[in-house]
Amino acid sequence: MNRREFLQCAAILISGASASQLGFTLSAEQTTYLASAPNYNTTAVDYFTPAQRKIVAAMTEVIIPRTDTPGAIDAGVPRYIELMAAYWLNDVESAIFTAGLQDIETRIPKEYGLSFDQLAPAQQLEIMEALEDDASDSEWYEFGNTLREFISEAPFICQFKELTVWGFFTSEEGASQVLRYDPMPMYFNGDIPLGRNESTWSSPL
User: Quick one: how far is CA 130 from the chain centroid?
Assistant: First the structure.
């Protein structure tokens, strides 16, 4: 089971949704894994410190802000990321993630005199763009990496963006209010035109 399939299973275990509701089908290996997966405590996870929790929330909202559709915080993405950090990141990924959260505060210019979550959105974006510039030589950014495979050694900002997008689009808000949800019986149609301002579908058609 590759990393993407593993993340799909994690999304199912966290959200309680089915694979079809989240827009993908399960392999036999994924089905076996889910059948034997332990019951995770998804209601009382307490992995981040209060300060880290605020940083995570602020960062997710920079990536997917609330507009005329829900943002990352509306969709519960910060909690999703905390669950992933607590239960599913391996040791290498966890070390990178923890170091990345600690690094955020060191990047705030002293003259600001504020924590990351207290900064203006433009200031938060500036810091996150600096993180991306520093990580730009990672294979995560390689041209053609359209599937955005989860790379264990990827820098913190890459991990964070990956988890934010996964968390958002496997949430009820992301799947039903941002993506277009069609509850009809599924069938395959490989040629569905999209209008210029239309979003994609949350379930395969």
Answer: 20
Residue 8 lies in a domain: no
Structural domain includes residue 22: no
C-alpha closest to that of 12 among 152, 4, 21:
21
pLDDT number for residue 71? 87
Alpha carbon of 57 to those of 22, 36, 100, 185, 187: distances in Å? 23, 32, 14, 36, 37
CB 103 within 8 A of CB 156: yes
Q: At what angle do helices 77-87 and 50-63 cross, to 10 degrees?
A: 120
Residue 52 belongs to what domain range?
A: 42-178
pTM above threshold 0.85: no
The token pair that represents 134 in the structure block: 């520093």
pLDDT digits (tens, 9 = 90+) for 40-95: 666 677 899 999 999 999 999 999 998 888 889 988 899 989 988 888 888 999 99
From residue 137, alpha-carbon distances to 107, 113, 158, 167, 200 in Å are 20, 31, 11, 25, 30
